[in-house]
Amino acid sequence: MKNILKTITLFCFAILLGSCSKESIFEGTPDIDLVKVYTLSNITGSGLEKINVYQSKTLLIEYQTTTRLNKYNTTNYTDSSDDTTYTIVVTKTDGDESSIYTITGDKTTGTGSLNIDNNGTITNYTNISIVEEQVYN
User: Fold this and answer.
1) What Å distances lie between residue 61 and 57, 82, 129, 135, CA to CA?
2) Residue 43 backbone dihedrals phi, psi, to 5 degrees
3) If pLDDT is split at 50, 70 and 90, which confidence band does 79 have?
4) Has this prediction a pTM greater than 0.70?
5) Closest residue by Cα to residue 135 from 51, 11, 19, 21
6) How large is the average pLDDT for residues 118-137?
7) Helix %, strand %, coil % of the chain (to 5)
């Protein structure tokens, strides 16, 4: 009886050790990199918490809250910023609709304005915060 109990214990121990492998549940290597974005915040009256405009990807993300966001494709991205000023123009596309975002600001103060041209209807937001930062994507 002792031999059977030892055999069962040894068998269970071998199964336990064999099941503890370090295999990843994800296939391949992750495609996550740090990318540069312009983050716009303090957009009073817009209903948005912040907007991230990606510099190297055709992507614009509008954060309605810290956990609820909308992702849009972009076209016609131009960045004419220099050492002291932000000057960015990008077209946000949403299906058949598009809006032109014009971002201007002062790099020393981190403040500026956002103009959104939605088919001739222009909305202007002033005294917004503009920061150039890196995020994982």
Assistant:
1) 11, 24, 16, 12
2) -90, 75
3) very high
4) yes
5) 51
6) 94
7) 10, 55, 35
